[in-house]
Amino acid sequence: MDAPVQNEIAWFRFGGPDVLMSNGLGAVEEIMSRVELSRIIPASANEVWAVVSDIGAVHEFHPQIVCSPITNGQARGVGAERRCELVDGSEVSERVTDWHEGRSMTIAILETAAPILDGRASFFIERALGASSRVTFTMEYVPDMGMFSGLLDALVLRRRMARLMGDVLEGLEAKVTKSVPHFGLAG
Questions:
Q1: What is the DSSP string of 105-121?
Q2: Of 53, 72, 109, 117, which has fewest CB within 10 angstroms of its CB?
């Protein structure tokens, strides 16, 4: 009688998410990557929230979005949806899945050409020293680049995501403070 086959599983850490891989005898579990950046913006939390929570106007501070119309008639709160047209001509469909008025929101990515699955972006806004606010922007996603997803995420995707998120925060600050952004030029 043959001995039962053991399902061998190996964990790899590439400076970020754990990627669970199997030998093909069992299920493969995908673990989300997470990129988080914070920025102090010299404006009140209410001023920052007024810009972030305007779902249909993300193109006014996101450097890669040309337009972002509301698609379901709901402009605020859980369930609001938009379709963002990107500068490269591709589109991203999104829906608000979590909303705490004046403090935070999470937006799920429903459709995208980007190599990600189950993506979501969150903004958290809190009062900082003086009249400033701390904005924390978090992106969570499952990379979708074949059998080398974890490695390509660690080497390429996560870095690009962090750079873009930094530009989004810079654009948000410029929009709130009515200044001019210098995308990618800040040290």
A1: EEEEEEE-SSSEEEEEE
A2: 72
Give this prediction's pTM. 0.80
Q: Which class does domain 33-177 fall in?
A: alpha beta
Three-class DSSP category at 152: helix
Tell me the CA distances in angstroms from 74 to 54, 94, 178, one per residue in order.
Answer: 11, 12, 27
For residues 65-76, average pLDDT? 96
Parse the chain into domains and list their residue ranges.
33-177
DSSP annotation of 156 reads I
Q: Are 19 and 31 in contact (CB under 8 A)?
A: yes
Query: Torsion angle of alpha carbons 48, 50, 55, 56, nearest 10°?
Result: -110
The predicted-structure confidence for 156-166, as pLDDT tens digits, reads as follows 888 999 999 99
Q: What angle do CA 106, 111, 172 make, to 5 degrees?
A: 45
